[in-house]
UniProtKB/TrEMBL annotation:
Full protein name: Type VI secretion system tip protein VgrG
Domain DUF2345: 729-888
Entries under InterPro entries matching the protein: Gp5/Vgr_OB (IPR006531), T6SS_Rhs_Vgr_dom (IPR028244), T6SS_RhsGE_Vgr_subset (IPR017847), T6SS_Vgr_RhsGE (IPR006533), Vgr_OB-fold_dom_sf (IPR037026), VgrG2_DUF2345 (IPR018769)
Family according to the record: Belongs to the VgrG protein family.
Residues covered by the Gp5/Type VI secretion system Vgr protein OB-fold domain: 471-518
Signal peptide residue numbers: none
Pfam families: DUF2345, Phage_base_V, Phage_GPD, T6SS_Vgr
Putative type VI secretion system Rhs element associated Vgr domain segment(s): 575-678
SUPFAM superfamilies tied to this protein: gp5 N-terminal domain-like, Phage tail proteins
Coiled coil: none
Protein origin, superkingdom: Bacteria
Length: 972
């Protein structure tokens, strides 16, 4: 059948619906239509959706001729036959639903340009941008895409209340889904305005984005009457009106944890609905997530928006009628309704938030043959509907409109994408490390596209969203095993490292680094990676300790574990100096090592091994080892015990000095006994204290007391309410009462050096040996004291020793022996014979006064140039020859001592000046413990420097004359 001769009947003039397409005027006749539009964002459509059935005398129209193209449907209004309301959009679905003899029926779906955003899924990072910047950027990407001409307009009361969003991520979601949730999150809503023109685009439709009811405009039919169904009026009217209420909360309360401020920010908003209209006061308490708002003002704004959405849904009105000008975002005054005629003027004004139009052209009257041949639109043969009718939802104009956050099931209407665990790469400005004060770092995700993207793809918009540097990305925290107030553990990821990122509450905008991951492929039996630098400037990171494959030093079954750092300059190569803590769990060879490549310094304990990176080389011994090519120091403020006295299981109190105390007590007993004997034998010096009170014995006794001191430690509260947990570690333990260094070994101590050895004691020094003591010097041996020297020996030989000589022996194998008393007498006495002999020369005796030799009452006296010889008995002079000559004299070789006035004697005799000082706080007078000081004389010469002890005392300063000294804080 051919319907082309229909002639004048095939026209759109004066029809209720007029359909315009790029294919030409009157080619397609609108048959019937369903139009859904509303104030969004809405899940059902992208602002509006038009489902149109159209007739066409051509059955060969290809879908690609109209898909994506702009079209316009005009709806005749009650104003006049020429006053039409346009609906402009793009064809998103086109199908032929029937055909007969070249005549066809087509079904079209027409949507706004915004609907096309629902067909592109993207991932993108927006940083430091407001919602206006983000929306403008996303919508701007669609400019010039095909036949689309995106147009939008902001109707915002005050832009300044919207903060700059530090980090917003579109993640694996369409542009439309992203914009929906973003607008709803900020309390923004939108609708479309349509315009008709004669251009090739046939008109335009503009997205209006607003945040206040003041953006709504009056409907062209500003006053709408309420009538009974079926009434015939000159103007369009409403014939069905029903108010609807639903239970809602009267207060919204939410809290957000702000980790930067370390506090929970709580905000609330109350309903504006009259409490009398609320049967039960309900409060919704929610956790808004991590740092959901920047400050209290933002929190208050968000909670207010949420409560306004609840209030808007709590009371609305569903209506039906024939008002063809009804459009989302338009206002009207309802008249002649019995429930509202007595309302105040503001309560009589309403805003349309959603409307569904049903309309049809009466084509069956003009082309009945075509309709009959193609069948009814719905195919069921039902009676035709009204030419036009609508159903709409409205609420009072003074009630703020907001999009509800939750649906009837309690789920988010526009939820954020649920982020899973993602990999990322740490980025920076090109330095070995990039972090802030709180050890946060920046990362780039593989989904980002741009110049250094993981997928090597540029973003369609042309922007560089993957620069792999610090210009994009926010500071992210790094999760650590433990974090406390100035305590915890951390290893800051460095640029190039791959990390695993989780998201707090599953929120893609709240990332946190959970840990780092190795990547690439490590070398076989060698340190390093087979891979070079990867995409996103990723460094190839292979484990430092691994199982090995074939090379002997590496095949240890992954028995090594621990922590190994890397010098910053070699962070990417891993070939620089490092620090490490190694745990070696090889069976039977357990070991722990703490070391650094700096000066080859390391501490090992257990089965000592030579380790080079992952290779375990030869054994070095057992126990503990400390080595370094630089200096080393051991400082112990309360005492240091160096002992070779073993303990069972290497256990016991760390200052257990049982053996040193016993040895010291033995030395004290021996010294006391010998000193006592010496005193009884008149070997003591004038003024010496009794044996037990000698300074040497006092020092030994002090050592015993220091090493024998103990301390008791137990859990106790120092103040009311203080929590104390003393689980173990209580009791009495050795604790030296004064700081000292104690050496002890059961089999000997040797201190050897090929150079000089110095031993200095500020007070007394005691050298005690249970058996022989040897002092040997290759050159000279000098012993000098100020007050006196007492040499005493018991002189009794006991068998067992190789040397049977007893007493005191002064022997000089060569050279001379000189004994002088420069200001006093010399007394030499013996219980037995005294022999003075010269084996090869002579013996000289001289005196300035006289020489007297006596025995048994006889004497020989030489005095004043005379010789006197007296004897109680006979005096015999025997010689083979006697020669008596005249007077003569002789004098000994010159022998002189320094005179009393000699400066050297005076200096030697002068009292040596020495003193210790107590350093006190100038204001409080309290002694300054462990205070760094230096002591200078008037000339600025430093005489001593050090640290005060626990009593605030300095070391002893010794000088040969009295002088003024200065004690100065030493910062060097």
């Amino acid at each position: 059948m051919n319907f082309l001769p229909l002639g004048a009947s095939w026209t759109q003039t004066d029809r209720l619906l007029v359909f315009h397409t790029p294919l030409g005027a009157d080619l397609m006749l609108a048959e019937c239509v369903c139009i859904r539009e509303g104030v969004g964002p809405a899940r059902e459509h992208a602002g509006f959706r038009i489902e149109l059935s159209a007739l066409c005398p051509r059955a060969d129209i290809a879908p690609q001729q109209l898909i994506g193209q702009p079209v316009r449907l005009d709806l005749q209004t009650s104003g006049s036959r020429t006053e039409r309301r346009p609906f402009h959009g793009h064809v998103t679905r086109f199908e032929r639903t029937g055909a007969n003899g070249g005549f066809a029926r087509y079904r079209l779906v027409i949507e706004p340009w915004l609907a096309f955003l629902g067909h592109r899924k993207d991932s993108f990072v927006f940083q430091d941008k407001t919602v206006f910047d983000i929306v403008d950027e996303v919508l701007g990407d669609w400019q010039g895409q095909g036949a689309l001409v995106p147009a939008w307009r902001w109707e915002v009361a005050d832009r300044s209340i919207y903060p700059q969003r530090s980090y917003t991520v579109q993640f694996e979601e369409t542009d439309l889904a992203f914009l929906r949730r973003l607008l709803a999150d900020e309390g923004l809503f939108c609708w479309f305005e349509h315009r008709a023109d004669d251009s090739s685009a046939l008109g335009a439709h503009t997205l209006v984005i607003a945040d206040h009811n003041g953006a709504f405009v009056d409907n062209p039919q500003a006053h709408i009457r309420f009538t009974q169904p079926g009434a015939t009026l000159a103007e369009d009217s409403i014939d069905r009106w029903a108010g609807a209420r639903q239970l809602g909360v009267s207060e919204s309360v939410a809290g957000a944890w702000d980790y930067r401020a370390a506090l929970r920010q709580r905000q609330g908003a109350s309903s504006r609905i009259d409490n009398a209209e609320t049967p039960i006061p309900l409060t919704a308490t929610d956790d808004a997530g991590q740092y959901a708002w920047q400050n209290s003002a933002q929190g208050e704004r968000r909670l207010r928006n949420r409560q306004q959405a609840i209030d808007a849904a709590a009371k609305c009105f569903d209506a039906e009628g024939t008002v063809r000008t009804l459009a989302p975002g338009t206002l009207f005054r309802l008249g002649e309704h019995p429930d509202h005629d007595l309302d105040d003027d503001p309560d009589q004004r309403f805003v349309v938030v959603a409307v569904t139009h049903h309309a049809r052209n009466n084509l069956a009257e003009h082309i009945p043959q075509a309709i009959e041949a193609l069948g009814a639109v719905d195919g069921d043969g039902s009676a035709p509907v009204d030419l036009y009718r609508n159903h709409f939802t409205t609420l009072r104009a003074h009630v703020p409109w907001r999009i509800p956050a939750h649906n009837a099931a309690g789920r988010f209407v526009f939820p954020r994408p649920r982020a899973r665990l993602l990999g990322a790469v740490v980025v920076g400005p090109g330095e070995p490390t990039h972090t802030d004060r709180d050890l946060r770092v920046k990362v780039q995700f593989p989904f980002q596209r741009g110049g250094c993207a993981a997928n090597r793809n540029a973003h369609p918009a042309g922007g560089n969203n993957a620069p792999a540097d610090d210009t994009l990305g926010v500071w992210l925290r790094m999760a650590t095993p433990v974090a406390g107030a100035n305590w915890g553990g951390h290893c800051v990821p460095r640029p190039g490292q791959e990390v695993s990122v989780g998201f707090l509450h599953g929120d893609i905008d709240r990332p946190v680094i959970l840990g780092a991951s190795y990547n690439g492929r490590g070398n076989s039996d060698a340190a390093g990676n087979r891979q070079a630098q990867g995409d996103m400037l990723t460094s190839a990171n292979a484990p430092a300790f691994f199982a090995g494959e074939s090379a002997e030093p590496h095949t240890h079954g992954a028995s090594l574990s621990g922590i190994k750092t890397q010098q910053l300059s070699a962070s990417r190569s891993g070939a620089g100096g490092f620090n490490q803590l190694v745990f070696d769990d090889t069976p039977g060879q357990s070991r722990i090592e703490l070391g650094t490549t700096e000066y080859a310094s390391a501490l090992q304990m257990g089965h000592l091994k030579c380790q080079d990176d992952n290779a375990r080389h030869q054994s070095l011994g057992h126990g503990a080892s400390v080595h370094t090519r630089a200096s080393a120091a051991v400082r112990a403020g309360s005492g240091l015990l160096i002992s070779a006295d073993a303990r069972s299981g290497a256990r016991g109190p760390h200052l257990d000095s049982t053996e040193p105390i016993a040895q010291t007590q033995e030395a004290q007993t021996l010294a006391t006994a010998l000193a006592d004997v010496a005193g009884k034998q008149n070997a003591a010096l004038d003024g010496d204290a009794p044996a037990r009170a000698l300074s040497a014995n006092a020092a030994l006794q002090s050592a015993v007391e220091v090493m024998g001191a103990t301390a008791t430690r137990a859990g106790s509260a120092s103040s009311a309410g203080e929590f104390v947990a003393a689980q173990g570690g209580t009791g009495t333990v050795p604790a030296w009462s004064r700081p000292r260094i104690q050496y002890a070994a059961p089999k000997g101590i040797a201190q050897l050096t090929p150079a000089n050895a110095v031993l200095v004691s500020g007070k007394s020094a005691s050298f005690t040996t249970g058996h022989a003591g040897n002092w040997v010097a290759q050159a000279n041996h000098s012993l000098a004291t100020r007050d006196g020297i007492a040499l005493f020996t018991v002189g009794r030989h006991e068998g067992g020793g190789p040397n049977t000589e007893t007493g005191i022996h002064l022997h000089a194998a060569s050279g001379k022996v000189s004994t002088q008393a420069q200001s006093g007498p010399i007394r030499a006495a013996a219980d037995k014979t005294v022999t003075v002999a010269s084996t090869t020369a002579s013996v000289n005796a001289s005196a300035k006064g006289h020489i007297l030799a006596t025995a048994q009452g006889a004497y020989l006296k030489i005095e004043g140039g005379n010789i006197q010889l007296h004897a109680p008995g006979a005096v015999r002079l025997k010689a083979s020859q006697k020669n008596l000559t005249g007077p003569a004299s002789a004098s000994p070789a010159g022998l002189s001592f320094p005179k009393g006035g000699d400066p050297a004697i005076a200096d030697c005799a002068r009292q040596v000046f020495d003193e210790k000082f107590c350093v006190k706080h100038e204001a409080t007078g309290e002694p300054l413990r462990y205070f760094n000081y230096r002591i200078e004389d008037d000339s600025g010469q430093v005489l001593a420097r050090g640290m005060t002890d626990e009593a605030g005392m300095t070391s002893r300063v010794v000088g040969s004359n009295a002088q003024d000294l200065k004690i100065i804080a030493d910062d060097d």
